[in-house]
Each structure stands twice: as structure tokens, then as C-alpha cells.
Amino acid sequence: MALAVNSELVQIAAMFIPIASSVALFSFLAVASWSDARRREREAYYTTEALKKIAESSGEGARAAMDYLQSKQKGVAQRRLEGMKLGGLITAAIGIGLGVFLHGVAREEPVYLIGFMVFLIGFVLAIYAFVLAPKQ
Predict the structure, then answer these.
(1) CA–CA distance, 80 with 60 (Å, rounded to integer)
(2) How far does Cα 124 stand from its chain's mean position?
(3) Do residues 77 and 102 make contact, with C-beta atoms less than 8 angstroms apart?
(4) Among residues 1, 68, 94, 128, which one has the fewest Cβ atoms lying within 10 Å of its Cβ?
(5) Which tens digit of pLDDT belongs to each residue from 105-124?
(6) For residues 133 and 85, what is the distance between their CA atoms, to the nearest angstrom?
């Protein structure tokens, strides 16, 4: 009798572990996302306040503040473009690897074409980033 009760408790606990871990994971992700957004908001606020004070102080300070803002915008655009290049190359490489894997798994069916589609997405993204994207 006691063995049957313990067995039922073990089964209930085994069902509870995935549910509890899923709730914990998504709770952690929500709090991490919120705290990161809050940090970015504070950084933007303090940067803006500092630039306002510099711009109000003198003519030279206003020019320095505008130069800083322009260099920051160029840096953001450059990082975005580099991220697109890297993302395109990684996606193309994943497409090639997926195509080779699927060809090895199912030789009779043309399922490797799925990898080719992924490769084309990465290729187009990389071509846009390297050739067509506006340069500054």
C-alpha cells in the first residue's frame, strides 16, 4: 500500500517538473527582457539630458553635441549593417549544412531542397548587406 502511494507521488512529481521549469524559464525571460529595456531607457534618458546641458552651455558645446549624435548614429547604422552581413552568411551556411544533412538522411526524396531555400534566404540577405544597402 505504501509503495503504491509513493509511486503515485513520484508520477505526480514527474509531471510537475516540466511544468514548473517552463513557468520558471518564461518568468526569467520576462524579467530579463523588462530589466534590459529599463536599462536602455535610463541610458537614453541620461545621454539626452547630458547632451541638452552641453548644447545649452555654449556654441562650441552645441557643435560637439551634434558631432557626438552624428557619430553615434553612424555607429548604430554600421553595427546594423555588420549584423545583416553576419546573419546572411550564417543563414546561408545553415542552409548548406541542412541540405547536406537532409540529402544524407533521405536520398530517395528531394528534401534537401529545404536547405536550398534556407541558403537562398541567407544569400539574398548577404547580397543586400554587401551590395545594395545604403553606405554612409
Answers:
(1) 30
(2) 19
(3) no
(4) 1
(5) 988 889 989 999 999 999 99
(6) 10
